[in-house]
């Protein structure tokens, strides 16, 4: 026995007093024999499953889910010996009643609880909202508390029950980041920030544990980009054609390999200002003093990965791959 989905024949939308959106969609299905009934039609391949989002062509509403309600009606007999059937389904932004009223006696069978919020934090910003560097009037990057701004970071909180304590499992992954794409975010964008557990009892004093894990999300990864700044640079005599005063600026033509070798051999010196005093210096990413050439030039930055990576999907078999 089989049924074939022939396509959509009608759809509509209504809006409730509480601003929820209800969609109705009608499908046309053909059966091959007269003995195939509404259950065969309802389970026809291609009919959206309960919980599927409203997404047909360019018409997408991710908050509207397919509800369990469905109406299957019989049409005329087809030329192939079966019947034409019509399936009407309801998609709604209202919570599914089954998920709210189902009684689960064993807490270990409860689904993972998923919630989220935003965490406030402060960070130093060396550029404005247009991406332009924040300069002093002498075209030096502004630094310090005056450049710190309040921002918000998305968090995802997972809560689930287990028969054994998860402490030893998740504690080793605290402050690590995702090692692969997860929840639509690239690797190193999701960090397990904190976790907690609680011992509970059910039935005749059976023990189980509730674990809560909080993940922080950062769109541009949790890696840091630091201005290449210090007090040492490669020995002037090795990188300049001639020494003419305390700040010569005629660089030799050297390969990256040659510069890296000088740094590895420790052929460095304290950078000094025109008065001969030791001073901080911005480097060019290769150990030499950086020189601003154009007005929009920004100092080179060094990317630093502070956090190890983890496969969060190994924390628990029920760990969600989508949220």
> Overall pLDDT, averaged?
86
Class by SSE composition = mainly beta
* Alpha-carbon distance between the two ends: 37 Å
Uncertain stretches: 98-102
Q: What percent of the residues sit in helical stretches (DSSP H or I)?
A: under 10%
Radius of gyration: 31 Å
* Anisotropy-based shape: elongated
Number of strands: 17
Order of helices and strands: EEHEEEHEEHEEEEEEHHEEEE
Give the quaternary arrangement of the chains. Answer: single chain
Number of domains: 3
The helix tally amounts to 5
Strand order of the largest sheet: 1-2-5-4-3
Helices and strands in order:
Blueprint: E1 3-15, E2 21-31, H1 38-42, E3 53-56, E4 59-77, E5 83-92, H2 97-101, E6 113-124, E7 148-162, H3 167-171, E8 177-178, E9 190-202, E10 206-217, E11 224-227, E12 229-230, E13 232-234, H4 236-239, H5 256-264, E14 268-270, E15 281-282, E16 301-304, E17 309-310
Parallel strand pairs: 8-17
Antiparallel strand pairs: 1-2, 2-5, 3-4, 4-5, 6-7, 7-10, 9-10, 11-16, 12-15, 13-14
